[in-house]
Specification:
Elements: E1 6-10, H1 14-25, E2 28-32, E3 36-40, E4 46-50, E5 61-64, H2 68-77, E6 84-89, E7 92-98, E8 104-108, H3 110-115
Parallel strand pairs: 1-4, 5-8
Antiparallel strand pairs: 2-3, 3-4, 6-7, 7-8
Length: 119
Amino acid sequence: MARLDHLALTVADLAATREWYTSVLGLEVEFEADSAAGLKDEGDFTLILIEDGQPLSRCNLYFQVQDVEAAHKEMSARGISFIHPPQSNGWGYGAGLVDPDGRFVGLWDELSMQAHEIT
């Protein structure tokens, strides 16, 4: 079976989007080029941001955290704005953010998701 290793997204402002993903979600810069940057999560998955004048990539991203309630509280204390706090929703249970390009970014944790299983 194949394993997803990288995902490329086109972005309007590489510097602003790179800063958002590193400061808000704690991703680490893996590489940087003139019009691209690779950001790695703790599972070694790389999100590649590309500023190339193409239409922006439209997709939703979901990041697993240890505890979604604690992550929401800590990030809110740092002034991070959420479109909704941890709650039951169409995809399970979690909190919602929006990145600088308007993409939905969901935060979830395994225990909360199991406790709020969609039936």
